[in-house]
Structures are given as structure tokens and as C-alpha cells.
Fold:
Amino acid sequence: MREIGGRGSLAGPRAIALLLGATLVLAALLAWQAQDAARSHRRAAEGTLRDDSRFAAREFLRRARFEVDHFGLYPIIYVLSANERAFPGGALPDREEIARLSRRMRNGPLPARALFRLDVATGTVSASPEAPEDLVAWVRANLPGLVAGKTPPEGELAAETISVAGAPRTIVYGVSPDSSRICLAFEVDTKDLAPFLERAFADGPLLPAAAGAEPIPLFLELSDAWGRVLLRRGSSFDAALGFEERLAGPRAGIFRGMTLRVSVPAEAARRLLVGGLPPSRLPVVLGALTLAAGLLAAAVALARRERAVAAMRSDFVSAVSHELRTPLAQIRLFAETLMLERTRTAEERRRSLAIIDQEARRLSHLVDNTLQFTRAERGTIALELADHDLSGIVRDAIEAFSPIAAARGVRVAVQIPETLMARVDEGAVRQILINLLDNAVKYGPPGQQVVVGLESGPRSLRLFVEDQGPGIAPGDRERIWEKFARLPRRDQAHAGGAGIGLSVVRDLASLHGATARVEAGVGSGSRFVVEFPPAAAAPSLEGIPAGGKA
Ligand code: ADP
Structure:
């Protein structure tokens, strides 16, 4: 039976789990592909934006060189050349003189701090009076070699960044436009380039913007060979979208050794790229994967539960069949004894009838429980609540149960008031009590005393059954109420059962809004308590007699 039921009910969940597993694998594959495609799409988009950054950097550099060369450096060389023309081989002009001579220049020149002249043929170096000693010594030692090695073409300037006595210095030099024999040089501080760089930056957008659009707010930073920032615009450099270059090569001039970093902001991507930067698909991909994994886990859990329930159901069916068989066999045996008139005395006849009665009661009790249980499973139990005398119901149930108790020599003591009105379903309360009594007799020792009590307090109404049996360990006190739950105890091997009695008690109790629990009894035994809410107890809490209600 279990086989057929098992296969029929498990094929579905297992197939679903398998299908979901395949879906999960497929989803993972798709997710990986989507993620890969998104990543390469993003890489391509970032590459395009990096190209834009590079373009802007080159444009800035072109303008900066123009500004610095034409307005900052050449004027000095021209003034020096003019002086050379007027006083060939004479004293170099001082700083004020350069300032005076170049006053008509638009933006420059750069403040030159020391001036030098080198006679290329003789290697003689002369310096302006402000030139510091150690710098003059450096120029004497190095400039002839530099000019001999790579004389800048006429009209171009070369520059050397050096450190003399720990201080950063830049020497700019070029051949005189009038005589290639004379090399003119001067020292400038790269920090003084700032106004020229600012003008280069401000001279219109560095990236071609769509007509009418605002210029792109670029990040741009130029720092000199010693790491000093000469110009910074924008808030932060984005390495993924940016371009960084350390300027080198013979044509870098005064910019040689400087570092230029430019990046377009991610917010501007939409204006520079069709569709903008592709957003990350990771959240969606991860969401889909999590969903598929969750479905798979749910299907596996469902399949497991289904299997456990199928096994329990089949155990239940065999337990109930077994439970039915025992009283039936007893009834048949004693009925036969009577029919064949095998009894010798009236007392024996009476005992046989008592056993038949007791077993028939047990049978009907079992059938009631099974019916109640299946109704609870289907959710079709409906109570018929009415005002009843609870004490009367308890007394009747104990009376009906007495043959079974007597068969085990169990004495049932009662601690109940004369009358106690409550709004309950009579049949349900009877079944609750009989189930608890049946367990007390079944699991307790023969000859024990079982106490049935009914207590009404200001806030609740308690029905309890206390036995002198083995008790229930605190760790088991919750799970015994689950359907089909039976404790694997050696001392209850003799007691049959299908594991549904307490589950029926709890179902019926909760339909009354009551709670059912077990606690330690006075001795070693246990005390099963059903606690009704004040609403159920309200009409009777003051102990109104049965007929006294209006
Ligand atoms: P069944 O009695 O058919 O096994 P129940 O749902 O009535 O099913 O009880 C569940 C389990 O709780 C029992 O198998 C038993 O182990 C334990 N139990 C119930 N009542 C008592 C009791 N009065 N004393 C000790 N153990 C009990």
C-alpha cells in the first residue's frame, strides 16, 4: 500500500525538482552569458569614454603648450635675443628689465628667475646677477653637453627639470633666433605656469559638445615632475573612464616629466555615447538565480515532506487496522463463548458481557478519533457550541470510561465542582477527556490513581487529567501533540496506538480557543491540561447552577 501511494504521490514533486534543477543549470548558464555580454558591452563603452578622455587630454596639452610657449617662454627668449643684438656678449638683463621690456606682451611672460648665456663655440657660460651659485655651477657643468647632444631646432625651446641643493628647478634653453652660436637659457618655477594652464583650460570646451549642450564637466589634473599640482579641475578621477599620461619625449619641452590625468564623469556618458553606460545586470541576474535556487529548495523540501507524510499515513493505516483488530478479536471471542454457552456461572457470563461492552466502547472510541482526525485533516470539523454543565459532561465521560479503567484496576478520582457552566461542544469535550483518560490508563501502571479535575478561576477554566505513569520528558512535551507522533519508549511497547489521540485533543481544544499542554504531575506522572479562554467560561465562572441561567 505504501509502495503504490508513495510512487503516485512522489512522482510529481520529484519530476518538478528535476525540472527545476535543469532550469537552475540553464538559468546559471544564461546568467553567465548575460553577465559576460554585459561586461564586454560595458568594457567597450568605457573604452570609448577613455578615448574621449584621451582626446580631451591631448587637446588641453596642445592649448597649454601654445599658451606657455607663446606667452610664457618665447617672450623671454626674444627679450634676451634683443639684448644680445644690442650688446653682443654684454651683460645679461636683470629680471626687472625683462619685465619692463615685455610689458607690452599680452599675458606673459613667465617670471624668469635667473638668466644664462652660453657661447656654444667656446663653452663660456655667463649668468645674470641674481643667479644662485649652485645653479650657475650646474648650468656650467651641464648646458654645453645638453646643447651639443640635442640642440633644440631654431624657434623651439628645450627644458630640463633638475634638483639643485634639494630644490626643484626647471631650466629652459634654446638657440638664439639671430645666431646659432649663442644658446640662451633661464630658470623658471613650474608653479608659475598655473595662469597659463588656467587660460588653456578656459579657452572653450575640450570635448566637442552637441549643439546647445553644456560643456562636459571634466576632471583634469596636471602635476609637475615633483608631484606638485599645477592645475586641477573637477572633483575626482575615474580610472575606468579616464586617461593618465606621464609626459615624455623630446617635444614635451617644459612639460616633460609632468603627469596629466583627465576623466569624463560617468554622468556625462549619456551625452557622449548612444545609450550611455550600460547598467550592471548583476542584480537581475542574481535575483533570477536566487529565485530558481529558492524554487528548487522549496520543491525538494516539498518532496521530502510529501514522502514523510506518505510514510506516516501508511504507518497510520496499519496502526489503525491493528488497533481495530484487537478489540474485534476480543468481542468475537467472548461473543462465541456466550453463544456456545461455555460460561459456567452467572458471574462469568457477566464478566464476558462486560468485556464485550468494554471492547465495543474502545472500538467506537477509536472510530470516533479516526473520523475526527480525518475531518481535521480536511478542515471540516465544525463545533456546535452551546452552554453546558461541564461538570456533568466530565462525570458522564468518566462513567462511560469506567469499564476500561476497571479492566486495568485504575481508580479515577474527580476534583470537580457540583456544576460549572461553559460554552462548549459536548461531544468534543467528551472526546478530549476520553483521549486523555485512555492515554493515562494505557501508559500508567495497573492499579494507579488518575485524577480528573476542573478548576475555574477569574481568568480561565482548566480541565486536567493527572496520572502516575512514566511522565513525559520536557524535551518531548511539544512534539507528542503532532500527528502520528509516538515516543519510542520501551515501557509503552505493550500499548497500541496510532499516534493521533493528542493531535485530536489539540485540534478540538484550539477550535474552542483553548490551549492544550502537558506538565509534570505531582509524582513521576504527567498532568495534561486543557485551558479554556474566559469567553468559553464566562457564563459559568461564578458557578451558576444548571437551571439558574436566565
Ligand atoms: P497514541 O497514544 O496512539 O500513541 P497519542 O497522540 O495519544 O497517540 O500520544 C502520543 C504519544 O504521547 C504516545 O505515543 C505516548 O508516547 C505519549 N503519551 C501520551 N499520553 C501519555 C501519558 N499519559 N503518559 C506518558 N506518555 C504519554
User: Anything to note?
Assistant: The mean pLDDT is 85.
